[in-house]
Amino acid sequence: MSESHWLALMIGNSRLHWAWFVEEALQFAWDTEYLPVSVVQNLASCQNIADFSREILAPGTINMRSLPPIYLASVIPQATTIWQTYPNIHEITLDQVPLQGVYATLGIDRALALWGAGAIWSFPALVIDAGTALTFTGAKCDRTLVGGAILPGVRLQLQSLGERTAALPLVDTPESFPSRWALNTPESILSGVIYTLMAGIKDFVDAWWQEFPESCVAMTGGDRALLLNYFQVQYPNIATKITSAPHLIFQGMCCYWASRWK
Ligand SMILES: Nc1ncnc2c1ncn2[C@@H]1O[C@H](COP(=O)(O)OP(=O)(O)OP(=O)(O)O)[C@@H](O)[C@H]1O
Ligand SMILES: CC(C)(CO)[C@@H](O)C(=O)NCCC(=O)O
Ligand SMILES: [K+]
For binding ATP, which residues are annotated in this chain's numbering (predicted)? Predict the structure, then answer.
């Protein structure tokens, strides 16, 4: 089976993230909901690639002759086991990521995104992943992990207020930047969450640049575009210095693929 066409699958906390690669070139990336166990079991018995891509809801038929290898990384241990029925599966684990000084429970998504950022812009590098959880993960010149931080992401902050209080409604992430001094409940929630989040991110990147003035700072994750838009409004000087990087985790997975095949 040719290894030049391959799929990357990142199992995140809210959904599955997919990318189709031809060697080191990302062809396209898409997200799906969690696939039922039965669908995953069927993938292995797909007769052709059209069936296969229908099952994983790929946008357009993937142009391959045989079932592609899947390179998988997961932050949900239980979700990994159902993929073991797929014949050509390669799980990427933390010990395969060439960063020094990592701790055993560091999320593979954080390690891969940082590896990807370092490969593109060189180390030191800081990655902000604005997903279900929002994380900061940084490494210095010699690829040693400096450390990072984890907090609830935008949607999770809004959900937790809506779900754990009597009087607060569930509100959606706003397209436009909210005003700070709100005069109704939904806008008060948005102001509180967004302004403190922005100030928090600014504080972390300022602290990072104080130690590593030349470092790249890259933002990835589902809320990347939203947060970078807010940054344009609130802290335009910082916005210009944060690199928008939608596929950092896939770029880390690609580094792993290349380390096996090149
Ligand atoms: N269809 C969607 N489902 C879930 N989140 C979405 C969707 N569209 C946009 N988002 C935003 O993306 C964020 C989640 O980001 P992402 O998809 O990167 O998270 P994730 O699947 O948990 O991945 P990771 O675990 O790698 O952070 C949410 O805060 C939400 O605001
Ligand atoms: C923090 C998340 C949830 C972000 O997706 C993931 O990277 C994870 O489960 N990490 C494990 C804990 C850690 O990174 O310290
Ligand atoms: K948990």
Answer: 10-17, 132
- Any ligand 2 atom below 6 A from CB of 107: yes
How many angstroms separate the alpha carbon of residue 121 from the centre of ligand 1?
A: 25
Question: Using an 8 Å Cβ cutoff, are 208 and 117 in contact?
Answer: no
110 marked among binding-site residues: yes
> Does the ipTM surpass 0.90?
yes
Instruction: State the DSSP H helix or E strand holding residue 208, giving kind and residue range, or none if neither.
Output: helix 185-211
- 164 by Cβ neighbours in 10 Å (0-12 / 13-18 / 19+) ranks as exposed
Q: 3-class DSSP state for residue 177?
A: coil
Tell me the per-residue pLDDT of 179-220, one tens digit each, with 9 for 90 and over: 999 999 999 999 999 999 999 999 999 999 999 999 999 999
Ligand 2 site-directed mutation target among 17, 102, 110, 154, most atoms within 8 Å of CB: 110
Cα of 76 from ligand 3 centre, angstroms: 9
Q: Rounded to the nearest whole angstrom, what is the distance from the C-alpha of residue 13 to the centroid of ligand 3?
A: 10
Q: Is the CB of 155 under 6 A from ligand 2?
A: no
Sign of CA dihedral 161, 165, 170, 175: negative
**Distance (Å, whole) CA 234 – CA 238:** 9
* pTM for this prediction: 0.95
CA 250/CA 81 separation, integer angstroms: 21
Which among 126, 123, 118 is positioned nearest to 141, based on CA atoms? 123
CB 109 near ligand 2, within 6 Å: yes
Compute CA distances 220 → 68, 88, 166, 174, whole Å. Answer: 26, 28, 33, 19
The neighbour count for residue 87, using CB atoms within 10 Å, is 12
